[in-house]
Amino acid sequence: MSAIILKNLDISYGHTKVVEGVNIEVAEGESFALVGESGSGKSTILKAIAGLAPDWSGEISVLGQPRGRNVDQGFATRCQMVFQDPYGSLHPRKSVDTVLSEPLKIHGLGNRDARVIEMLAAVGLDQRFRFRYPHQLSGGQRQRVAIARALMLEPKVMLLDEPTSALDVSVQAEILNLLKKLRREQGLTYLMVTHNLPVVSFMCDRMAVMNKGRIVEIAPATALHDGSFTDPYTQSLYAASGGNPDRKD
Amino acid sequence: MSDMPLLELENLRVSFPTPQGRVEVVKGLSFTLGRERLGIVGESGSGKSMTGRAILRLVRKPGRQQADRMIFDGIDLQGLSERKMRDLRGARISMIMQDPKFSLNPVMTIGAQIAEALKTHENLARSEVKSRVLEMLHSVRINDPERVVNLYPHEVSGGMGQRIMIAMMLIPRPDLLIADEPTSALDVSVQAQVLDLIDELVRDKGMGLILISHDLNLVARYCDRILVMHAGEVVESCAAEDLHKATHPYTQGLLAAVPRMEETREELPVLDRSAWSGT
Amino acid sequence: MTTMTNWLLDDSPSSRLQASLGHSYRVTRMLMRNPLAVVGALILLVLILAAIFAPWIAPHSPLGQNLGQRLLPPSAAHWMGTDELGRDIFSRVIYGARITLLIVALVAVISAPLGLLIGAVSGYFGGWTDKIIMGVTDVFLSMPKLILALAFVAALGPGIENAIIAIAITSWPAYARIARAETLTFRNSEFISAMRLLGASHTRIITGHVLPLCTSSMIVRVTLDMAGIILTAAGLGFLGLGAQPPLPEWGAMISRGRAFILDQWWVATMPGFAIIIVSLGFCFLGDGLRDVLDPKQGGKS
């Protein structure tokens, strides 16, 4: 069974189509990247899968279940999302503890204290952070909390929207390692949006390159090692990201 | 002109008050800059941006800056009055900020803004101003300057906006350009264009450049010399081509933590911060 | 004492209680650094104490008439003098604190939550809901407060309860506007999206996540508005549409004293002072609260 299937997906904002005719199939346990520059529609696809961009047509299904137009509770336990901005994705007036217990409360799950403690350990946060507020945390710590929140309901599919682009490189390395470890341990499927090709090379198995709302190429991440891309846009993106060894003077 | 350094900085300190007393964000920074390209690299909170602002004496209150020496082309920057300093800013030292959206005036046309930058520093006839503006836009590789001068900032893309900022900063022909993360708001393909452009203009005009960035590889590609900053101090200073031979554990850690295009490592090495600092 | 402070300021609190106490302690401490806010808080404290302990503080009955001692100037026996019916003005001002506090508290309890909820719903859903709700709000806002209150009181009949209802009805639209504006700034933010993704219902998001973010600016606004509410209530009292005689309402007292303003100035002036001081107290406190609570003033990150 495929984790995520997108068929002929069109997404529009008002009258402008931002995504056109996208077909992707992500296998269970795979880590798949959507790569492109700003305005290419890559984040919009994630939003549509998550139910935050209602104006789409085509077919979206997650773990075999077709997606409806609205957010529903069953979907929440299968698929979660980590956002780009660790500063905007946490409620400024809620402590880490409240943020992590909230999903359990919504779904009426018990044993909250134990689960929160366990999850903090899983994302590598010390227990002393449990009652802190977001403004007392660094960017990397906040992103760990956001990942922990997404994992509280034990989803199998994670949507990652540039999870490290707002972080320093040393912190980025920590978060990428964490995401990789969690995928290994919990058998997660990742659909990750990024503009950073080296991150794809580290994190993902396959990638789809997007340009102006369309997928121009789907390639294995190992293509980044030798630059064996067929599409000219992908090649130029690869070169601009410092991919071609000749370019480094 | 060649043997006198463009900028001499000795023991620069910038501090901000907190409830626990003043905290220094730049702790005794010294360097000399000729007409060359210097890169300052560091992570957030390393004090790299504050260094850039301090050179222009733009550290906002309640922040405080002081230095033993801050000499630009023979002028003592610390001794200048605020008015003299204002004349110097833009005319002789320019700064490019991170995001063009916040640096351009939204209700003024691009042509008018660039002309304004020129007119505040030089007295020129109107026709000459116009030709200089068009020439400048052309040199930042804007294809149809006649059309672009009449546009408003929201009508141009991020990359074009940043090129316009560069045009605005370079039109008074400064001697020193400080670029603070000039491309981090831009897409990778545009990034290269903008940096190539800055690089070319700096070389052609024999200006000094201070490129401030968090991206080690980018700085290594576009600069001659690199200072690596951490927690307000320079931990490493080396020629750009020797960056991979860096000796300080922090620099080594930073270099190793960047994912590579040909990534085969199962796990990225993580900085052990306790190794060289108390935090 | 130091261990207590350290416990409160601990960066890594070990329980929910410690975290929330620590948070309140920090807010209080920041507020205490602002001298005007402290003055405001003291004035309000005095007002509250006066209202609670009025029977013990007041030397005379607020209603007891003594026609033999009409219109006496301030003296040791009558600190603020007596009015035209020989009642001790000081005692009446002290008892008046009760009425003022009642009006202020009831208006705040009725109109602030109402405005908060309406504004949050309007801003959160947007679209037609927003247009309709804000249309109604604008109708209320377009009319001067006092005149609208007058119209309501005229329709409902004079009396202190009706005055309170009228003031509450006229003051919620301003709060709704603020709550809506505040909600709009973060309705599309990622933490709200994250809650929706977790399966939270709209009701849960509004009450649990949107409202708490609006409350601090609301508290500030309500505190600042208190002065206006007191003045409106006094205005209604002055016009004879608020508290009815013999209730010692400050506005009504001024109205009665107006007849003697030239020869017996204290009759109207003393309750006037009370109004001004209490209004100032609310303003000072509101200003201080804004510095501490308003997230846009920042300084926290």
Main beta sheet of chain C: none
CATH topology of chain A: Rossmann fold
What is the distance, rounded to the nearest whole angstrom, between the alpha carbons of the first and last residues of chain C? Answer: 28 Å
Largest Cβ-defined interface: A-C, 40 and 28 residues
Helix fraction of chain A by DSSP (H/I, runs of at least 4): 25-40%
Instruction: Give, in order, the helices and strands of chain C.
Output: HHHHHHHHHHHH
Q: How many distinct beta strands of chain C? A: 0
User: What is the alpha-carbon Rg of chain C in Å?
Assistant: 23 Å
- Biggest sheet details of chain A: 6 strands, mixed
Q: State the shape of chain C.
A: flat
- Which architecture of chain C does the CATH hierarchy give at level 2? Orthogonal Bundle
SS-derived structural category of chain A: alpha/beta
CATH C-level name of chain C: Mainly Alpha
Strand order of the largest sheet of chain A: 6-7-8-3-9-10
Main location (chain A): membrane
Catalytic activity (chain A): glutathione(out) + ATP + H2O = glutathione(in) + ADP + phosphate + H(+)
EC number (chain A): 7.4.2.10
Function (chain A): Part of the ABC transporter complex GsiABCD involved in glutathione import. Responsible for energy coupling to the transport system.
Describe this structure in words.
The complex is a heterotrimer of chains A (249), B (279) and C (301). Chain A is 35% helix and 27% strand. Chain A is an alpha/beta fold. Chain A has a single domain (2-90, 155-247), classed as P-loop containing nucleotide triphosphate hydrolases (Rossmann fold, 3-Layer(aba) Sandwich), CATH 3.40.50. Chain A has a 6-stranded mixed beta sheet, sandwiched between helices. A 4-stranded antiparallel beta sheet of chain A has the order 2-1-4-5, with helices on one face. Chain B contains 10 helices and 11 strands. Chain C contains 12 helices and no strands. The longest helix of chain C is centred in the middle third of the chain and has 37 residues, at 89-125. The two termini of chain C are 28 Å apart. Chain C has one domain (25-60, 79-297): Orthogonal Bundle (MetI-like fold). Chain C has helices at residues 2-9, 16-32, 35-52, 54-57, 89-125, 127-142, 145-156, 160-186, 190-197, 202-238, 250-257, 266-293. The interface between A and C is medium-sized, with 40 and 28 residues. Chain A: It is found in: Cell inner membrane; Membrane. Chain A: Pfam families: ABC_tran. Chain A: One of its GO terms (biological process) is transmembrane transport.
